[in-house]
Amino acid sequence: MINWIKSFILKYIYNYYEKRLLNEVKKGKMPEHVGLILDGNRRWAIEMGFSPEKGHEYGYEKLKEVLKWCWELGINIVTIYVLSTENLYRSKEELDHLFKLAKKGFKEILESPEISKYEVRIKAIGRLEVLDKELIDLIKKVEEKTKDYSKNKLYIAIAYGGRAEIVDATKKIVEAVIKGELSINDINEEIFSKYLYTQGDKDPDLIIRTSGEERLSGFLLWQSAYSELYFMDVYWPEIRKIDLLRAIRTYQKRHRRFGR
Q1: Which CATH superfamily is domain 31-253 in?
Q2: pLDDT digits (tens, 9 = 90+) for 53-71
Q3: Is 39 an annotated catalytic residue?
Q4: Which of 39, 76, 152, 205 is catalytic?
């Protein structure tokens, strides 16, 4: 009985704090584009006594929840770091599980009422050619189905590396110059950004990384030049709505000068 009362009181306090924090955040300027580095799935699973694969599964379920929070808050663009080019060197067993989970995710997107409700346009970015045909086909179907949505955008960085993105953009620019489609003198930061995977879309205002690690690990290296960075000491599967709200509140309190 005493434990039940404690649980009730804690839940009441949490809900009260969440509502208060939400009201506070809604009064400030909301970031238009948020990048999420979903880190700590494996470590969380090991500490909980689960297999690393279970960590990714819990992380996937949490992702769906967090994305809904973002859309409800009016954050129009979200970029999620799902799989880096470096992650491709992990064990075959773990990669097979990750790709199986990715296929499940894209299949669910095709049937998801949330994607339609929030009118989310989805685009996968990275060296997609290294993925297997089934996954590539699913990605194409998702992109085709959501191509006319314009209210929100979701970039899924899979087989992605920031350096790789810059190299690929450079190759495309060189090719355009050779073909006479672009003059060397026309190349500037704005033109260069249009050759990136994000094709000149708005740079992230805020990048959040979970797990306590304080680095970008190659995430949106060009686009993050003036992003506000927020590192939280919780594993991705444990992230709560108040954690997201605190990150946004911190962002709102910072003064962004963009070097001026």
Answers
A1: Decaprenyl diphosphate synthase-like (3.40.1180.10)
A2: 999 999 999 999 999 999 9
A3: yes
A4: 39
